[in-house]
Design brief:
The protein is mainly α. It is 68% helix and 0% strand. It is built from ten helices and no strands. It has helices spanning 8-22, 26-33, 49-53, 58-82, 85-100, 113-123, 125-142, 145-162, 169-182, 184-192. Helix 6 (113-123) runs parallel beside helix 8 (145-162) and helix 8 (145-162) packs antiparallel against helix 9 (169-182). It is globular and about 45 Å long. The N and C termini lie far apart (33 Å). Pathway: Lipid metabolism; phospholipid metabolism.
Length: 203
């Protein structure tokens, strides 16, 4: 953990701001704006890029991936710029919670992989790049979105250690556990051998 230099008010401000930024459901916004239907009634009903892909629009899925990652990165970078590293780490966690548990959708949000990667890129870009590569490789090998996300999250902790970002290690572990928690049903299907590949009906 970094040194806590900011006041409680400042940390609370950035926690709330980052949560609100993270809670923007870009997948739903884009699918509605592009007349692709109600995302909550398509596929798994998830608001992330994998489910957006099931609308048949690769463009919408790519934009969702970029924007969901971008909102996490923006929250961290703004908090760091105006408050410091302690606020940046608080913002990272809050943005993830906003995406996974958005107040606008009854706290039923996405699984957090894109936002997780965006947060990592902003917090420690070498760790973020390495985690993105782990995500891409795992997905390319398995053709399974959830395995890509889980592999990336698991690997990020080791990348933080080996690349010298120990001050963010505790946060990284918490974010990794959050990603695994959000994928708990996927993990059950992976163990049972029933987890669908990319483009199938559930994620």
């Amino acid at each position: 953990m970094p040194l806590i230099d900011s006041t409680l008010f400042v940390l609370l401000f950035w926690a709330i701001a980052a949560y609100l930024v993270g809670s923007i459901p870009f997948g739903m916004v884009l699918t509605r704006a592009m007349n692709l239907g109600d995302l909550r009634s398509i596929g798994s009903g998830n608001i992330g890029a994998t489910n957006v892909l099931r609308t048949g629009s690769k463009k919408a899925a790519a934009l969702t991936l970029i924007l969901d990652g971008g909102k996490g990165a923006v929250a961290v970078l703004l908090a760091r710029l105006f408050a410091g590293e302690d606020a940046a780490q608080i913002a990272a966690l809050a943005a993830m919670l906003g995406h996974c548990y958005p107040v606008w959708l009854g706290f039923k949000g996405g699984k957090g992989v894109a936002t997780f990667l965006g947060v990592l890129l902003a917090l420690a870009w070498p760790v973020g790049i390495a985690s993105c590569l782990a995500w891409l490789i795992a997905m390319a090998v398995t053709r399974t979105s959830s395995i890509g996300g889980l592999a990336s999250a698991a690997a990020s902790t080791f990348f933080m250690i080996f690349l010298g970002y120990g001050s963010a290690l505790l946060l990284g572990i918490v974010l990794t556990l959050l990603v695994f928690w959000r994928h708990r049903e996927n993990i059950k299907r992976i163990r049972a051998g029933t987890e669908p590949k990319i483009g199938a009906q559930k994620d």
